[in-house]
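Example 4.3 (complexes with small molecules)
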Amino acid sequence: MDESKIQDIEIGLFLDALYQRYDYDFRNYAKASLKRRVLGLAAAERLSVAELIPLVLRREDYLAEVIAQLSVPVSDMYRDPPVFKALRETVLPLLQTYPRINVWQAGCATGEEVYSLAIMLEEEGLLERTQIYATDINDSALHKAEDGIFPVHNLAGFEKNYKNAGGKAEFADYYVANADFFRIYKRLRQKIVFAHHNLVSDGVFCEVQLILCRNVLIYFNDELQKRVLELFYNSLVRGGFLCLGTRESLRSIEEQRLFAPHQADCMIFHKNGVVT
Ligand SMILES: C[S@@+](CC[C@H](N)C(=O)[O-])C[C@H]1O[C@@H](n2cnc3c(N)ncnc32)[C@H](O)[C@@H]1O
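Answer. The structure with S-adenosylmethionine bound is encoded below.
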């Protein structure tokens, strides 16, 4: 048997150990990228994947490292500006009709996207009556997101994306900065509830009008994507909106017919009324 196949067996055993010990289930994540990341963990420890198993079973402090490596918590402010522009122009006007609005960002990583959303809601006069929930499985990323502190060297890119996404003021209106870091203002931070939620194993989070889950489903296999799309379907009000990442596949969404395109080029969908 070649080395790669042996590694696949070891990875399966490692994921089983992680699941049985801590209830974190990565067994239905997309194989190729998960394999790269597990091999990265092993390389960092200078161990084989099999040798990681006793480590993950016996050293609780190693879990945070494993979750950090396997979960890819990278993000950006107004990542894909045309998508945020489309949300602003074609979704937020429809949310105006609700007296109370709930928004769920699933897989928020370090929070850049959820603050982009909060700023946009404020500029459209909707933030006051909106409750935003931002969830992830990576607790260390969630803590960073909750702090709302980002390196100043990212500002030029963030400002550019803000403008390209249809920002109506200046990005500088939303933070206070020192030489190295800037912090999003409290009035925006306090509109967001950050919480641990696992899309693999947890149930409906709350009833919402809009779900953003971008660049998360790409890490899941078809079976898991279907489960998560069902979860989103059950979490949305009738006609509610779902926004996925631009690199996400349309296959499971088309197969299930739970959602219909609202603006397909920006991966924005709305919940289908009747599914046959
Ligand atoms: C690449 S980031 C995407 C961040 C942001 N949505 C964006 O597009 O900029 C993927 C995020 O999904 C989270 N994630 C992975 N598996 C998850 C799961 N089972 N439940 C909830 N979040 C998960 C990761 O922890 C990570 O923060």
